Amino acid sequence: MDIIAGQHPNSNRLPACVIIFGNMKRLLSGNEAIALGAYHAGVRTATAYPGTPSTEILEYISQFKDVYTEWSTNEKVAMEVALGSSYAGARTMVSLKQVGLNVAADPFLAAATTGVKGGLVIVDADDPGIHSSQGEQDNRHYAKLAKIPILEPIDSQSVYDLMLVAFDISEQFDTPVMLRTTTRISHSKSVVVITGERKPRPQDIVFPRQMQKYVMLPINARIRHPMMEERLVKLAEFAETFGFNKIETGGENLGIVSGGIAYQYAKNVFPGATFLNLGMTYPLPIKLLKRFAGLVNRILVVEELDPFLEDNIKALGIKVIGKEFIPRTGELSIDAVANAAVKAGLLTETKPLDKLNLPNKLPMRPPLLCPGCPHSGIFYVLSSVAQRLKLPGSKQTDKPSPLTITGDIGCYTLGAYPPLNAMDTTACMGASIGQAIGMEKAGISNKVVAVIGDSTFLHSGITPLIDAVYNRSKITVLILDNSTTAMTGHQEHPGTGFSVQGEPAGKVILENIVKGLGINDVKVVDAFRIKELRAALRDSLEHNVLSVVIVRGNCAVKVPKKVNPRAIDKEGCNQCGICLLIGCPAIQTEGKQPVIDQTMCMGDACTVCEQICPRKAIMPASQIKAGVNK
Amino acid sequence: MEKWDLLLTGVGGQGNILASDIIGDVALAAGYDVKKTDTLGMAQRGGSVVSHLRIAKKVFSPLIKEGEVDILLGFEKLETVRWASYLAPGAVAIINNFAIPPLSVNQGIEHYPSDDEVKSIIKQRTDKIYLVNGTQKATELGNARTLNIFMLGCLANFLPFETKDWQTAIAQHLPERLLKLNMSAFALGRKEIR
User: Fold this and answer.
1) Most buried by CB count within 10 Å: which residue of A177, A517, B172, B190?
2) Total domains, chain A
3) Residue B89 carries which DSSP code?
4) Tens digits of residue pLDDT in A561-578
5) CA of A370: which chain B residue's CA is closest?
6) Is A30 a domain residue?
């Protein structure tokens, strides 16, 4: 077998798909099944930018040493690298989250126009329910826009099986193929019987110059467009007998058309119905759908998010019901489909269990910045300069803040929450800088600060910063450099100097980029030195020029050892509550008395609370005499 | 029909995802269909973490229907209460007697439910409540991180799988140097509920 089985010193920390191959029946997540399916299909290149829920796909496949894998700078670049690799004849996969395809939309449409040489599969992971995204969108529309096929798996087995055929479809029809998962498919584990294996593929890695196919001058693009239309017709014909478009015969009273995870909920709710499960949800098999319609009295379409199948089926003249009952927003579930079925008169209502009687509202547990997070200090300073810090129990004031803080996407978006309250916008990757320029140019009286992380800056913050230079903007840009892509689980990026495999890689220096753009007011400050952070921010705000402050400090998760955890000397503490304003999870209260959880505090690596304590009552626990601090 | 719908709840870092992975492998080895899904929210530490695990001859939805959970394995009290409405009447609730107060509680804005409140809420669905001192036992054993395996020991009393299958699955998921300690935690958990 092709696997590293049992040889790797950390083999039990590797994903299940890479270890143990004596056993061919495994519990795999959807993302593991994608990686393994692509590998067995002969994928030679895989590219991605991290994004929940698609991140792990590249991490898994990077464990196979005979695949070229890279974290690309952003999704657009990932798509372009993938396209070049496909043109050269290599089977290629690019994996991204739903909003990642927004970033990659331009090369995505271009790929759909030129077609491919080596099979090109675009794994698109949508996020119904918005578990970890800035919006909810149904990317099946993108495939329709691009006139390419969509494969939609229902569990890890079908993920694996569809990956095995996706590359063949891509090559047969000269088209990129979208394999669309959702968070629930990508992040659920189910049983996979592993039937494939990595076989040597004929080596045909050469780019044949073909101007009409690869150079999209208008004269050539005009030739490609009718070919794309013909391709769709051929794909629809292929879909008629495609083995993953399956009728499961049940009662004739109700027919369910479904695809993706929604199929599973519908199977639980309507065990007796006749099903048409579509493994290819675009283009649709017209004859198969008409035959199905003849088998049943009425048809309900069960799908998550938009009425994509429903509208396309209705356009064929087949009568169906769907979104008048099935929710258009959020994730579906057995409960959601069952409630819809009751509304549609397809199911009689069962008596629900009594609602639980809760004596008090349960406290929420929102995600937090970690103890020792390098973002906490700068957000505390921003909040302080913006006059937004509010001691526990003090009254809300309506006093306007003198600062507007445009924000971006990463762990630091959590700075928007109390007690920090230090982020005013979050739209999409890299938007903070452009938004800040726009606010300034529109003429708001506040000073404007843009806050962006290192990985996000490299992803899409550089072009708007060039705009700021060019158009003589006077904003301040804070680049929070924790030397990792923390939010998605600590992936490498061009600024870390390491590749996805953990090997040394080229390293881009942030301050060199910024200075290279012609910005003169550039400061680099330690993320854990409060006085210096405050001085740098004040200095940048006072001078009416474009300025950049790089706030540098390691992500707390990457700090190897906790040394000298801090504690609060209760004799010295007057319970003012200022230490609580950092929002550090290690600082808790016993009654009114703040205390520091010794097991959580990052100690010498942070010391932010010690620096802001006005009574100097926070110090290494070892310095507090026995008996003073319990 | 024979089925076990399990909900594992806790706070990021407590190890309940690893625990649910182990249960899944034990059930697969015993010949069942298994589906497992974790809801993590934003991928941060210290947030709520819930795993749905479904075991039967054939499983469709990976998410359990509200009111149909057979066994709830709660690693933290508040996170257990939060999911109480998922319990089927008469289900088993195994709760680690341990509180991790969220920031809003620490700042005095919200109230953490008392032990009586926890019990009274769960009791609206079931009387089969097992409050276990998992964190304390795991700490006494020498490593608080063995809590998840201790909880599996508690759970094993309610599932029809062989001890050796549990041990095999645990060994597949943990580095060798931690095995002995974790096997002790499993045995302790097993004895915790009689």
Assistant:
1) A177
2) 4
3) E
4) 889 999 999 999 999 999
5) B45
6) yes
